[in-house]
Amino acid sequence: MSDTRSxxxxxxxxxxxxxxxxxxxxxxxRTETAPTLAAARELLASATYxxxxxxxxxxxxxxxxxxxxxxxxxxxxxxxxxxxxGNVEAAVEALKVGAFDFVSKxxxxxxxxxxxxxxxxxxxxxxxxxxxxxxxxxxxxxxMVTLRNTIAKVARSQAPVFINGExxxxxxxxxxxxxxxxxxxxxxxxxxxxxxxPTELMESEFFGHKKGSFTxxxxxxxxxxxxxxxxxxxxxxxxxxPLPMQVKLLRAIxxxxxxxxxxPAEVQVDVRILSATHKDLSQLVNDGRFRHDLYYRINVIGLxxxxxxxxxxxxxxxxxxxxxxxxxxMHRPAxxxxxxxxxxxxxxxxxxxxxxxxxxxxxxxxxxDGDHITASDLHLPTPRGHSSSNxxxxxxxxxxxVTGTHQALGAGGTAPRDxxxxxxxxxAGTALPxxxxxxxxxxxxxxxxxxxxxxxxxxAALGITFRALRYKLKKLGID
Length: 479
Fold this sequence. Notes:
The protein has 20 helices and 16 strands. It is of the alpha/beta class. The protein has 4 domains: 6-127, Response regulator (Rossmann fold, 3-Layer(aba) Sandwich); 133-304, Rossmann fold (3-Layer(aba) Sandwich); 308-380, Helicase, Ruva Protein, domain 3 (Orthogonal Bundle); 395-479, Orthogonal Bundle (Arc Repressor Mutant, subunit A). The chain has a 5-stranded parallel β-sheet with strand order 2-1-3-6-7, sandwiched between helices. Helix 13 crosses helix 15 (353-367), helix 18 (432-450) crosses helix 19 (455-462) and helix 19 packs across helix 20. The chain is globular and about 90 Å long. Mean pLDDT is 81; it is low at 128-135 and 384-432.
C-alpha cells in the first residue's frame, strides 16, 4: 500500500480507534480519527481520504447519515460500516444507503485488512477509464443514463444485487459490468444458469463434492462457489431454483461458507452474489414458490434493466455498434443503416429486446447487398391490426421473412431462449405450438417456391442452417 493513501476512522470508542489506527498504519496507510459525526464532517470538508470506516452508533447521530452523505458528496470514496455483532439489519441498511461493505465487532483483523485492500483497489479503479463492458451499455436515453449511473454506484458496494428485466435486455452484461467496475474485477466472474442444472446435481454443482461421496464421484470437485471465490457468482434465472436448494443457498450466502457433498467440514468462501430473472420474483414469493428470506437476502439492491422499447432514441447508436461488431467478426466493412431502416426499427416493438435486434441485424448483414441496409433487408415482423407503442405482434403474412419463421426457429435454427421472442400470442395457451408450426410451415413452403425448391438458397433466405431446414422439413411433413 502506498503511504500517500489515507483513511478516516469514525468511532467514539477509544480502544477501537487505536486498534484500527495500529492495523492500518502497519499497512502503510495514513489515518485520521474522529469520535463524532460533527468531527468527521469537519475533517471531510478540509481533506481528501481514500476510505472511511465509521461506527454505526455515534454520540451525535447514526453512522448511516455519514454513509449517505459520503455516497452523495464524495462518490469516489468507499465507506465501510462497523456494526455490532449479529446486527444484520443494520449492515443491510448500510449497504442500501451506499456502504462498500461492513465489518462486525469485535473486529477481525484479517477480515479488516481484506476489506481495506478491496476498498482501496475500488477507489483506484473508480479513477480509471470505464471498463470495456460498460461501453456496450450504449445509449443516451434517460433510461440508459440512469442505468449506467446506478451500476457505477452499485459496483462500489459488496451488497447482493438483484437484476430484473425482460428476456434479451442484457441482464448478464449488466452483471459483468458491475463486476468489472468493482473491487472484485481481478477475481473470477462465474455465471450459472440456475434453470439448466438438473435438480439432483445442484448441491454438487454449487458446493462441490468429495471423492466417493456418491456413485460417479471419482475425484474431488470444487463447486461454483469455490470457483467464484474472491470474485462474483452470477445466478441467472434464479427463479428456477427448487425450494430445497433455496434453503441451502440462503445458508451459504448468510454464513459465507459451504460444505461440499461428503466433506466433514465447511469451507469459507468470499463471493459476491448477483442474481437475475425475467420473472416477477415478488409474485413467486407471494405464491410460495420462492422463499421470502432468500428473496430479501439477494435483493438488498434491486436494479431494473429497461426494455428496448423504453429506450427512445437509442436504436441508431445501438444498431451501428452492433453492425460494427458483427462486421469486424466477418472481416468486412460495416454497412450503414438507411433512413427507412432506422424508421422501421424505431416503429417495431422488439418483444425480444436487444437480443432480437442483434439477430435481426446479423441476418440483414448476411443478406443485404452493398454497403447499405434498407428496411426491406430487415424483414421485420409486421404488426397485426393496430400496434401499441409497447408491443408489435408478428402477423401471419405471405412472406417467409415477415412471419415468425426466424423468430420461431431462432438464429441458426435453434429454439428461442424465451417464448416472448417467438410471438406475443402467449394467451393462446395450448394452441400456441400448433400456431407456430402453421406459421413455419407456410413460411418454409413459400420460401421453397420462391427459390425453386433449392434447399441451400431457401435455408439462407430464411436465416437458418441447411441442417435446421432439413430437420424442419421432416418435422413439419413437407415433401
